[in-house]
Amino acid sequence: MLIYMLATAMTIVMLIATAFGLHQEAARVRVKANTKRLDGFAHRNVYRRH
């Protein structure tokens, strides 16, 4: 019985850790996409040849 409780607890902890990791990764990608979009806009205007 104890082994099942430990396995359940570990499963729950790993699910929480996975959700937290996915949340952080999504935030990192969101920030990277916003930065890339702004950088691309700045470079397009600064280095544009007429």
Essential attributes:
50 residues; 90% helix; CNNM transmembrane domain-containing protein; 1 helix; mainly alpha
Structure notes:
- The protein is mainly α and 50 residues long.
- The protein has a domain of 31 residues.
- Helices cover 90% and strands 0% of the residues.
- The protein is rod-shaped, with a radius of gyration of 22 Å.
- The mean pLDDT is 82.
Quick take:
This is CNNM transmembrane domain-containing protein. The protein is mostly helical and 50 residues long. The chain has one helix spanning 2-46.
Topology:
Blueprint: H1 2-46
Overall 3D shape: rod-shaped
Tally of contiguous helical segments: 1
Main pleated sheet: none
What's the gyration radius in Å?
A: 22 Å
Protein name: CNNM transmembrane domain-containing protein
